[in-house]
Amino acid sequence: HTLQKAAVCRRGGVGSSRCNRMCFALCSLFSGLEGDADLQFLLEGGDLLKVRSSSWKKTRYLKLEPDCKTIWHESKKTFKSKQTFSLDDISAVRQGRQSEGLRKYTEEQVENRCFSIIFKGRKKNLDLIASSEEEAKQWVTSLHKLISNMNNLSRQEKAEHWIFNCLRKADKNSDDKLSQKELKDFLRMINIDLDDEYAEILFQKCDKSKSGLLSGAEIEHFYDLLTHREEVDVIYGEYAKTAGYMSADNLVEFLMTEQRERATLADAHKLIEKYEVDEKAKEKKLLSKDGFLMYLHHPESLVLKPEHKEVYQDMSQPLNHYFISSSHNTYLLEDQLKGPSSTEAYVRALVKGCRCVELDCWDGSDGEPVIYHGHTLTSKILFKDAIKAIKDYAFKTSDYPVIISLENHCSVEQQKVMAHHMSSILGSDLVTAPLGDCMPTGFPSPEELKGKFVVKGKRLNKLEATFAPEKGYHAQNVEVFLQHFFLASAGNLCNLFTSTFSVQKTKKLKLAKELSDMVIYCKSVHFHGFEDAKQNLSFYEMSSFKEGKAVKLAEESANGYIHHNMDKLSRIYPAGLRTDSSNYNPVPLWNAGCQIVALNFQTPCAEMDVNQGRFVCNGKSGYILKPSFLRDGATEFDPITLTRGPWLQHKLLHVMIISAQQLPKVNKKKSSIVDPLVKTEPIENNGFNPSWNQSFQFEVYVPELALVRFVIEDYDSTSDNEFIAQYTLPFNSLQMGYRHVPLLNKNGDPLPAAGLFIHIIVLDAE
Ligand SMILES: *[C@@H]1O[C@H](CO)[C@@H](O)[C@H](O)[C@H]1NC(C)=O
Ligand SMILES: *[C@@H]1O[C@H](CO)[C@@H](O)[C@H](O)[C@H]1NC(C)=O
Ligand SMILES: *[C@@H]1O[C@H](CO)[C@@H](O)[C@H](O)[C@H]1NC(C)=O
Ligand SMILES: [Ca+2]
Prior knowledge:
Its cofactor is Ca(2+). By secondary structure, the chain is α+β, with helices and mostly antiparallel strands.
């Protein structure tokens, strides 16, 4: 374990508290868990039956590699190269027949022996059957334990873990020593393309024993040279005015001057107590450079205000006063024409905090309604399976209500089946009557609707009718003639099929009373202008707008739209032309107060990054309270003309992009090295620790609506730059001073070791 110790115990020396702490964190992953049966179990591994279809079920040997991070996955065909995946790629491990594949291809009696490994991104699930119930349980508990253990490591520990793994992989002949060739491979792995001469110099500098191999302390030295953060040294040096250390007083000065935090001596003592790794320094109430780095990496010190991470907004306002994280055609995993539909897509969207999901319902065989993109080749899933998945995953990330948006194309018979499934699966969590005993005059709040499902769809009559029985409403399955019905739905569909629609335009839709009655707070109606809506529509009657129409309203009558959205809900959906499931910019629609701005969640793109950034705060609840100038009935706010008013708070945002750490490779080709660019000068051939020191200034006029996005691209002089990583957050949630920005990959999943280091100041412009 020389390499490991080198990585772990480099500065403090064996026995120091830093070393112990790091060793504990890492060794509990690598070697120190002799006593831990779960880890031992995974390292030994075992045979499992992998399920791909009814006929394809094959035995596979799975085990954890000694890096405790990679799962090795053997095919019986020996000539096939071994397959592996990283624990980092796992999004969930589910016990039982909790995947589409297992439900479809296995019998109920194996329920207790089944489990599934679900991956991030688009990688297919691994559906497995163990030989006994105990064994299945053991796999699931062990994997859960290891994953949560790994997620518990601090950013710095993750970074060191990453480097250690690269070192271990580079040591091809496992002799715990690094040859010059192995060293070069290692540098490539961590994204540094040193030229041969410099690599040689570095190697000679560290190879004190002149053996031609680096071992033990030599690797430590080499590692130190690599991980050295000169920019942090400079900052530390400026404030470390007490015998080369930062005293509590020095720390207060740093916090007040640079971080713009109101800090007392007591706060500084607490920070030293929490982050100092050297016991001797801690005793003297001093912060060492290592302790300072620990502080800078801690989640509370990152660029996002820690107090905004929790639910911090008032959740007791009416539902339509919030932006609601919303998805379009939620069932699709890929494009809108021939891609697969999956209940997994609902799980992914809900786990990402989405609070409005969409179901396109059509008649299926055997009387069971199905979900797919009508008139296309997208595959089908059962309506009831989608509802079950929604029920199971609705409140894993957020407790606040989920809106089930129904696009109903079913016969009355199958609509009754839909109503039956919703009421039997969702039970009392389904809102089937207004809260309270009388006709409501406005929306309930997210707080009041916690844990509830709200159906959005067509309704036969006004909700008021249920409170006025004397008017006698008893009709069953009344025909509603929806003359605009197909015009409206066509917006959801590919233009290839519009010709079919012109023929069907006059088709009538019958609505089952059972289904109609479930529509309480979100009744779909057509939009005939703001004036009509104001005079003729009740608060719960809401319209859906195709993106083009909505953008036009948001540009031409923004203030009218804002007032409309103070009384009602608006849903926006992508144009039918977007058959590739691309997205539109949600920002202008939020600026006009629209709540349900539905995006194709399955598509990695800048618009989804922005959506994730919009909803990263407030406990990832999927609800963000609109600023008061979008809720106040007297508001004159117009995001286009931007007249004076309380919304106008002209600010200057100064950002200095200092450096980045451990940017991942985007091109798996071994020889390719990332050339990172942060809208600055590109830094050539260094993705490990590029440094820029470039300052920028931005003007911000409406801070409450502004979002800030950091994007890192790989610069290419001959073609388009390639995306590496990004992070987006609300302007008002920025912390000032020296901050690390966590980085997300194109799917929005965190890159644990990577980061951007910046300095931020926000000033009033006037
Ligand atoms: C992870 O950290 C939390 C809080 O610090 C702790 O309660 C939990 O037991 C830790 N989990 C593991 C697996 O170490
Ligand atoms: C940025 O500043 C740091 C600290 O002063 C320095 O070590 C580094 O070389 C600088 N980088 C560039 C590209 O100027
Ligand atoms: C309200 O509805 C009635 C009946 O459909 C219609 O005549 C009237 O023009 C509508 N009001 C507005 C302002 O559009
Ligand atoms: Ca070696």
